[in-house]
Structure to design on (425 residues):
């Protein structure tokens, strides 16, 4: 059985909200598109069941967290949809997705087919949440669907709710809109180096968000605000180049090559980073490579975690009577040249693994062993936590507390401002 869209455009789509909490939703396919939709459905409380022979790292993380049950670790077979209230298929195979859609249709279950919008019976809308309102936008036709138009309308409605205006306008036809350098030549695309801030979606800049929702390709880091990916249409290419401590699966030279290759193919490319592109983000290197290749580049600043994460924990990096300045280093750098003055704050990024060596170096350089110190984990994230101590004790306390990245270390009297300090470490 195949699904045939209604010939009447006015009747093709019925806007409807679904309560999926506790209900069985079957995901077919283990790639990035499934991962993005899985997070959205998990947030809505769905009982998610996965059918796939293998999964990407993002989906594996959801399986490990318990948000998704990997029930069938094999290719899809007819009968796998039994008991489903809703089905989502994104296998990368048009033939398999068509079979899933047909099986869902046969058992009267709605199906979202990421690779075949016209053949699906349900669609994931562009969603905005403002206060107590949820706005969802989708195309009016299953044949002439334009997800980018839905995202633009969604953003305009969201802006009107927040500012009282309604600047709704259509997305310019692809190839006619000027790129960031004012060019209209569709043969060369553009690159935007976007700072995503400390990871919270609502701390992403308006300019950054606009560029991301208009992008053809998003090259994303591990600590960037990944929730923005849920708002992108399925045809946007997502390239995950995330690094962890001591593990860089995609080296910087290859990242540079990706940016140049995709932009020279005529794509609008966003390089989405955590924090700010120019604060230990290697943004300058990426800009140089793109400019050398004749690609227009825009740099969008972001709120660096060096300042924002301490603030999230109640610690100002400067404060009258406590600190007149601050230094920001990665945990891999020599701290011997950092001023040892009591009124100078030291902020360490990516320094958990090297904390014993760092504290020893600071002590050897003349810092008082009783200098307050704090480690803030997962700033603005769900497991944000602050561990306090002194320069002499913080490394041991980090081990006792099981501190793990991402984490920011702050050394200096400003740590006394942290609620966790109370009367002492």
């Amino acid at each position: 059985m195949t699904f045939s869209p209604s010939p009447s455009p006015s009747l093709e789509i019925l806007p409807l909200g679904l309560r999926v909490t506790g209900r069985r939703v079957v995901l077919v396919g283990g790639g990035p598109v499934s991962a993005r939709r899985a997070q959205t459905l998990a947030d809505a409380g769905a009982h998610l069941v996965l059918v796939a022979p293998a999964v990407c790292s993002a989906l594996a993380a959801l399986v490990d967290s318990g948000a998704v049950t990997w029930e069938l670790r094999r290719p899809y077979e007819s009968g796998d949809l039994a008991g489903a209230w809703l089905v989502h298929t994104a296998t990368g195979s048009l033939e398999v997705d068509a079979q899933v859609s047909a099986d869902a249709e046969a058992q009267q279950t709605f199906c979202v087919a990421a690779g075949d919008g016209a053949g699906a019976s349900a669609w994931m809308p562009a969603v905005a949440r403002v206060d107590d309102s949820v706005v969802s936008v989708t195309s009016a036709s299953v044949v002439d669907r334009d997800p980018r138009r839905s995202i633009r309308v969604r953003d305009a409605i969201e802006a009107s709710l927040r500012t009282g205006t309604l600047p709704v306008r259509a997305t310019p036809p692809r190839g006619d809109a000027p790129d960031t350098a004012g060019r209209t030549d569709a043969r060369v695309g553009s690159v935007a180096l976007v700072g995503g801030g400390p990871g919270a979606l609502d701390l992403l800049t308006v300019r950054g968000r606009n560029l991301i929702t208009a992008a053809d390709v998003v090259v994303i880091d591990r600590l960037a605000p990944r929730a923005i990916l849920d708002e992108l249409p399925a045809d946007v290419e997502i390239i995950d180049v995330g690094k962890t401590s001591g593990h860089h699966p995609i080296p910087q030279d290859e990242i540079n090559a990706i940016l140049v290759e995709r932009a020279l193919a005529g794509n609008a490319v966003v390089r989405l980073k955590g924090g700010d592109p120019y604060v230990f983000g290697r943004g300058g290197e990426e800009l140089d490579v793109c400019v050398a290749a004749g690609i227009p580049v825009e740099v969008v600043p972001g709120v660096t975690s060096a300042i924002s994460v301490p603030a999230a924990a109640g610690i100002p990096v400067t404060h009258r009577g406590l600190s007149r300045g601050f230094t920001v280093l990665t945990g891999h750098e020599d701290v011997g040249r950092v001023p040892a003055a009591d009124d100078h704050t030291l902020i360490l990024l990516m320094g958990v693994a090297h904390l014993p060596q760092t504290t020893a170096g600071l002590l050897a350089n003349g810092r008082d062993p009783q200098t307050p110190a704090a480690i803030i984990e997962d700033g603005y994230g769900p497991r944000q936590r602050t561990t306090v101590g002194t320069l002499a004790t913080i490394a041991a306390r980090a081990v006792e507390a099981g501190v793990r990245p991402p984490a920011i270390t702050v050394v200096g009297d400003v740590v006394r401002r942290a609620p966790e300090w109370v009367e002492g470490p």
Notes: The chain is about 25% helix and 20% strand. The CA atoms of residues 373 and 394 lie 6 Å apart. The chain has four domains: 23-124, 127-163, 190-303, 306-417. The first strand starts at residue 24 and ends at 28.
